[in-house]
Design brief:
This protein has 156 residues and is of the alpha+beta class. The chain contains 5 helices and 5 strands.
Length: 156
């Protein structure tokens, strides 16, 4: 596979799913601009989780967290991107998801992580639920500039 000239893989690139499946050390970047992109996120994260050797239960956890975080970026943040990357630390292997949006930001991150908090019509379990599914979870948000979530699940 020949990467694009800018070195970034996007959903429009037909090799994106194969790149995620290879689970190489190169990150896979996915756009979060359309409903179709949200489906592509689920597929790419699933391929990466399978390639990284995750159990079916942990695959489901990572896919669910990625789907929820991507949907939040799309709906509340006006779009953005998700990067799927291999995480390596102290002999462990995992998947790291980095989700960035260009939205209004989250004024109170702690409140947003609490179940029941919603700025839309949802149930308000998204961020907190995603955090519970992953091993590491960090939210950085600046009002008026957007939000970045970095989360990792380690292979058991």
């Amino acid at each position: 596979m020949t990467p694009p000239a800018d070195g970034k893989r996007t959903v429009g690139d037909p090799d994106t799913a194969r790149a995620a499946a290879a689970c190489d050390t190169e990150p896979v970047r996915l756009s979060l601009a359309t409903e179709d992109d949200l489906l592509a996120v689920r597929h790419a994260v699933r391929f990466a989780a399978v390639a990284a050797g995750f159990s079916i239960i942990d695959q489901t956890r990572v896919i669910t967290a990625a789907s929820e975080l991507a949907r939040n970026a799309y709906i509340h943040g006006g779009g953005g991107d998700l990067v799927v990357d291999t995480a390596l630390a102290e002999g462990r292997t995992g998947l790291r998801l980095t989700i960035r949006d260009r939205g209004p930001g989250i004024p109170d991150v702690e409140a947003a992580l609490a179940d029941g908090y919603s700025t839309g019509v949802g149930l308000g379990h998204g961020l907190g639920g995603a955090r519970r599914l992953m091993d590491e979870f960090e939210v950085r948000s600046t009002p008026g500039e957007g939000t970045t979530v970095v989360t990792t699940r380690w292979r058991r």
